[in-house]
Structure formats: structure tokens, C-alpha cells
Amino acid sequence: MELMYQVEDKPPLPISVLLAAQHLLAALGAIIAVPLVVGGVLGLPTQDMVILVNAAMLVSGVVTILQCKGAGPVGIRLPCVMGTSFTFVGVSIAIGFEHGVAGILGSALVASLVMIVGSFFMPFIRKLFPPVVTGTVVTLIGLSLIPVAVDWLAGGQVGSEGYAKPANLMIGLLVLALVIALSQWGRGILAAAAVVIGIVVGFVVCIAFGLVDFSPVKEASAVALPSPLHFGLSFPISGIIGMSVAYLVTIMESTGDFMALSDATHRKLTGKKLSSGILCDGLGSALASVFSTTPFSSFSQNVGIVAISGVASRHVVAITGGMLILAGLFPVLGALVVAIPLPVLGGAGLVMFAMIISAGISMLSRIEFNRRNMLIIAVSIGSGMAVTVRPELLSYLPEFAKVALASGITTGSLVALLLSGILPGREAVVLEDETEA
Fold first, then answer.
1. Mean pLDDT for the chain?
2. What number is the average pLDDT over the span 275-302?
3. What percent of the chain has pLDDT over 70?
4. For residue 241, what are the domain limits?
5. C-alpha 62: how far from chain center
6. Residues 6+ apart with CB under 8 A from 323
7. Which residues cross the membrane (predicted)?
8. 66 domain-assigned
9. Which of 73, 168, 200, 393 could form a disulfide with 343 if both were Cys (CB 3.0 to 4.6 A apart)?
10. Number of structural domains, the chain?
């Protein structure tokens, strides 16, 4: 797909703000969901929940800017949104029940060294990803996100009240149709901002029919100041081990996200760039612990926005980081975004996430479809989707294995790497020039 704005382009400020809003709308709900889930399960008081959520938005903004703009060896310098990661939910809850929030944050802080140290080995790890593995992983990322978009479009989780009622489906399909129409037939900013326009129109329709709950906006405080070390830090050995496993999983998932982003932005992903991105991820997670929230990773869903909008400018997504900081300092702004009904986000999310699948298929189209490569693709995607749609498969595994394999992306990636390494006829991989900007 031809890009409207390249990675180094700087669109006019009003246009940049509009384009940045697309990424904010796609990411904010997921960013605050992790601290809400962890805090809710642990039964934290409202004041502590607010601190977790505000810190998540604030630090997400800071790390997003660092990832996009870069500082020395830190930051991949691509349009990458960073936020709290669901990979850490299960282990955080387990640690929290025994050691409290201080145990979660202390364990995450120490274990972030796994990602920080691991970042220096990414040039070697990058060599393990020939095109057949890369394309398979990117396809899996998109496939794993589709159930999320479907649940959004239907109005919540399967079994929840009103799931898939006609009104939800009609609103979601309206947004979906609008995004498709603007992307296909729109020109200039209309095509580039298709996602945010679709979401705004869907939001307005929901307001007109009285389907928007504005209570989060009314309850949100006007200003929230950061609260570093609010919960304190403790360092249980069991918690550090659990978090270390989760960080290893995150390295795999972030590597897949960065590969998908590389393809969407038409930029080569060298081992050096990959190291910079993973290092930023690890340092961002350490910063999150200090500022009283859960660990971070890159956001797959925002890769879909780059793909469908043709806007690859890292400077645009850096503005998204600024918006996240504002949402953390002024929670009422974030609450307004959270008030957007799920079917509205689902309509846009379905096409965004499906675009990641398209990117993966495009990458796979460049390889030779011989028996070996077809086996790698088939078994890897089958394994990843098995875990995604039937997570109960892992019920009797040890806890560390559940954490490691809970993500279909990770499971499928590990299978792809294993098969690529042991099946005869392994592809020669030429690592791109490490000095390329």
C-alpha cells in the first residue's frame, strides 16, 4: 500500500492532531483495562484504582514519545504506541493476592532487567526470523486480535447482557462501512483519518439514541498528579520469577509487532533497531513500576491504523503520546474516550485488525510455497489459534507454562521458530544493514 505520509514526514499540526487521535481512540481503552482488571480482582479501593489508571495513561504517553522520537540507543523511531500489557494480568493477580501491589510493582521492576538485558541480543534473535516465520507471526497477530474486535462490535464479552443485540451490530457495521468507504474512495485527509471519522460518527449516533453512559466523565477528577512509589515496592522471589517469564513472552510479542510495523511503514527492521525498540519497552516497564502501574508493551492494534490510513509518520504518533500524558494528568479527557460504546470501537477495530492479517499474507506471498514452508505456516497458525480460541487447553500445565503460552501469538511464534530450525531446507537469512537509519 502506498503511504500518504512517510516515517519522517511531519503533516501540518491540525492534521497531525486529528491523525494522532485515531491512535488514542484505538489504544486508550486497552491501556486502562489492565490496571482496572488487576485492581478490581484484588479489591483495591477507588483511590488506588484511580492512581493505577492515571499512571498507566501518563507513562504510556511518555514511553510512546520515547519509542517514536528515540533518545540515543533507546526507541525504535517508528510510529509505535506503547501501553499496559495483558500478558502481565495473570501473574500480577497471582502476586497481588500474596504480596499486594507492592509485590507486583517490585517484581516487575526487577524482572524488567530480563527485557533490558535481552534487548542487546536482538540482532542475533532477528536472524532467527526468516520471511516464512515473520509472515506467520504477523498473520497470527491479526488473527489473535479479531476475537477482540468481534466482542467489541457485539457489545462486550460473550454471555454479557445485550451481547450481539441488533442495535450493537448495526452501530458497529455502520462504523465499519464508513471506514471502508472513506479508505477506499476518500481523498487526502478523509482517507487518512477514516478511522477517527468513523468512530466520531458512530459516537454521535449513539449519543442521539441515548446509548452513551457519561457517568465515567462525571465521576472523573479534573486533575491528577503523578504518585511515584505510592504503593511501595517489595521483591518476592516467586514474583520476580513469574514476571521474568512474562517479560520473555513480551519480547516475543513485541518483536512480532515491530516486524508488522516495519512492513506497514516500508522500513527495514534491522537487529539494531529491534534492540532499540525492546530496550525502550523494558525501560518503560521499569518506569511504570516506579510510577505505580503495571508493565508495558507495544500495541498491535495501532499497527492496523498505520496500514489502513497510510500514515507512517512517527511524529504523528508522538503527538498521541502527548495526548496520553494529558489524559493521565486530566482524567476527564480519558473518561470521555472511555465513554465511547464498544460497538463503535468494534466496527473500526475489525478492519484495523484484519489489515494486520493482510500484511502478514502479503509477507508470506513473497516466499516459495513449498512443502516445508506450508507446514511451518499451517502448524504454527493452527497452534496459535488453538490457544487463542480454546485457552482451556492450558488448564493442566504448570503456572509458568500457562504464562508463557497463554498468548496465541507467542505459542505460534515459538512453533514457527522451532519448525524453521529443525525442518530440512532452512532459508538463508540476510540481516539488513545494521547502520541503516
1. 90
2. 94
3. 97
4. 13-422
5. 16
6. 20, 21, 24, 61
7. 12-37, 49-66, 78-97, 103-125, 132-154, 166-182, 189-211, 231-249, 316-338, 344-362
8. yes
9. 168
10. 1
Q: What is the 3-state secondary structure (H, E, C) of 242-287?
A: HHHHHHHHHHHHHHHHHHHHHHHHCCCCCHHHHHHHHHHHHHHHHH
**Residue 431 belongs to a domain:** no
- Let me know if residue 195 belongs to a domain: yes
Sorted by sequence, the CB contacts under 8 Å of residue 420 that are 6+ apart come out as 128, 130, 132, 133, 376, 426, 427
Q: Which of 175, 172, 194, 174 is nearest to 183 (CA)?
A: 194
All residues at 6 or more sequence positions from 205 whose CB lies less than 8 Å from its CB, including other chains = 171, 174
Would you say residue 436 has pLDDT above 80?
Answer: no
* Residue 427: inside a domain: no
Which cell goes with 311? 500514515
**Mean pLDDT, residues 282-310 taken together:** 92
Cell of residue 118, nine digits: 535481552
- What's the whole-model pTM score? 0.85
Q: Return the higher-pLDDT residue of 347 and 90.
A: 347
Joined grid coordinates for residue 102? 507492592
Helix (H) or strand (E) holding 39: helix 13-42
Q: What is the CA radius of gyration of the chain?
A: 21
